[in-house]
Amino acid sequence: MNGRLIIAIDGPSAAGKGTLARRLAAHFGLPHLDTGLLYRVVGVKSHRTGQAPAEIAAELQASDLADPELRTDSAGQQASKVAAIPKVRDNLLNFQRKFAYQPSGAVLDGRDVGTVICPDAPVKLFVTASPEARAERRYQELRERGADTIKPRVLAEMAERDRRDSERAAAPLKAAPDAFLLDTSDMDADAAFAAALAFIERKGFRSSGP
Ligand code: DC
């Protein structure tokens, strides 16, 4: 191993970063944090209770991340709205840094992991795909879960969330200058994993497992 391995994965929704993050974490035996879940907890709780988003962010516990409602599209929209509030982002910073800098190393995926949370991470990936490819994946995922929706609506909601996440002043979605760009529009999960792994191995990191 070439020092502590922290893998920072950023990119827009449904580009394949979650699947990639889980596979890389399993391969290297590292803990994984989906940072989007933190914003989802804040968005859903503030919507449900009326409590100030920054206060919820300051009190967040790891046990809050298990709520199945966090996976819905409306939770994603609520998350994207509270994610534009600088105080919410500040109050979630320590939780994410503590996770990233644990002695084992870690994998984190989100929007600002390589730019703000761990700017010194030795491995940064920016995973993207065309809006059509991402909307198609998201649509299939929703259909499999039994959700009643249509493709143009999925595309429109995705475009709205992308715009909000990219244009906000606080830690907007963007690739770190030293990130490896991975466009998964024409890749399946295996091909994306192979490309990311080849990049990480070129940096001198290997799995110490069997
Ligand atoms: O990755 P996701 O779809 O679960 O994220 C939900 C929202 O949370 C996303 O639209 C923007 C916000 N987010 C963020 O601002 N910063 C992160 N590191 C992760 C998510």
Describe this structure in words.
The chain is an alpha/beta fold and 210 residues long. The protein has a single domain (6-200), classed as Rossmann fold. 51% of the residues lie in helices and 11% in strands. The chain contains nine helices and five strands; from the N terminus they run βαβααααβαβααβα. The structure holds 2'-deoxycytidine-5'-monophosphate.
Major sheet attributes: 5 strands, parallel
The count of domains is 1
How would you classify the quaternary structure? single chain
β-strand number: 5
Report the β-strand fraction as a percent range: 5-15%
Number of helices: 9
Which regions have little confidence, pLDDT < 50, spanning 5+ residues?
none
What is the 3D form? globular
The CATH C-level name is Alpha Beta
The unique ligands bound to this protein are: 2'-deoxycytidine-5'-monophosphate
Query: Quick check: average pLDDT?
Result: 94
| The CATH homologous superfamily | P-loop containing nucleotide triphosphate hydrolases
